[in-house]
């Protein structure tokens, strides 16, 4: 009986986008994974289950990262969808996943696209970050920044954001930059590294007079 209910949930999720108008996410994501993530966002929004679904997806990702046998079984296209659904139902019950999440897992398994889960999770996390007004920014520097410098950098970069947005800063170290930094937002990049400047000078002096 549990398996039957699970299958009904799968059909409900996969047909929702057709029968009802989608709630558009704050940012567009692409590909098959993006379509699943967009439909998931709409379904979760209507159920007021966005935080729960986000937590569920990330929890299952951690399980798949540690349980290789479980992951290989779900990713194996030769395994029957109904067998995957039964196993997923057990995991969902144990972890207390939301109904919307369960329906997504079933749809992926039923359509033999469970190997797209990682991409769906990434796309959904991108949507949720935009929903919260988070703006990812990666700063690459030649040497690690101390806490006070990173705090000041966060303050300066936050001045470029719109009202209601918040900066999510990630720093990386690349010794080849020599000095300075490279700042990468989602839609733009600024190269202020010494290596970049030296490269421009090299181009200038190599030009014929």
From TrEMBL:
SUPFAM superfamilies: N-terminal domain of the delta subunit of the F1F0-ATP synthase. Transmembrane segments: none annotated. Pfam families: OSCP. Keywords: ATP synthesis, Hydrogen ion transport, Ion transport, Membrane, Transport. It comes from the Eukaryota. InterPro entries: ATP_synth_OSCP/delta_N_sf (IPR026015), ATPase_OSCP/dsu (IPR000711). The keyword Ion transport applies. The keyword Endoplasmic reticulum does not apply. Belongs to the ATPase delta chain family. This is Oligomycin sensitivity conferral protein. It comes from Mizuhopecten yessoensis. The lineage of its organism: Eukaryota, Metazoa, Spiralia, Lophotrochozoa, Mollusca.
